[in-house]
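S.,

Sequence below, as promised.
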Amino acid sequence: MSIPNKYDVAEAILKVANGNGFKPSEVRQYLQNSGRFGAIGAALSAQIQSSLRTFRDKGYVGFDQNYNQKKNRPHIIISLKQLQDFVRTQEITRHEPTASAAIDSRLQEIEQMLGQLMQKVDQLSAQIQPSPSNDHSESAVPEEEVSEMIDLIMGTGNVRAFYQSLRPQDKDRFDRVLQFASTTAIEHGREYGEIGGYANQPPYYNNVQALIFARFGNQGDALAGSRMYSIPLVCDQNRPITIIIRNTHRSHRVLEEKVSEGGNSFRPLSLDDFLDNPDHYFSYDAGQQ
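The prediction came back faster than expected:
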């Protein structure tokens, strides 16, 4: 199963737009119903955010100023022709000989059937098995709240500039770790903020500008002991995209050879492994003991 690209999102917008207006949840639902993508729910919603931001930057779409709601914020199509031209151009570049196209069409049908089958299996599994305490499925936190937090974070100048400087593969990692961080923060009553940096961090990450997820006081300072983790706003040879977790939320399943230690925190050496197995590293309950 693949991740929706900008063509997929643009095509979905044109399909669901009602009077030139649409909601991100409608785009996500259209893509989910196609059965062509591995993620569903909040995870799929996070995957389309980058494309939506690109289309807003290009002036193809924009936020509907008639609505001031923060959750699932409505959009309007600003330039229908440019959006249609973008889709048309992508369709031309995808053109292949008839025989290959027929094979691809059949493969797509099979992928759709498999995707629908996997969704049913997931739904049945969720009904049969109790959700673990660290579960971050869409039933735990409404996807609209997660999308709202991600949009607000990405709307800040420092984060936006940092994100635009990243390579595509690093943008994907940042999107995924931000999805985890936002979902878990909302689940446990945390908000986000920016800091100039902390000491006692894992090697190379001392005093690096970062996003933090914590509870904040009236003066905007993080309340003592409330910070769960941070995401450094840096990416280079020695400092890849990562998440730095406070030792107070260190899972008992952490393997020492898989982390880099700081004075009061640690980070996974493999962000991909963390994203696939967050409970091997992070435990909210550990910080409550």
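The first strand starts at residue 21 and ends at 22.

Coffee later?
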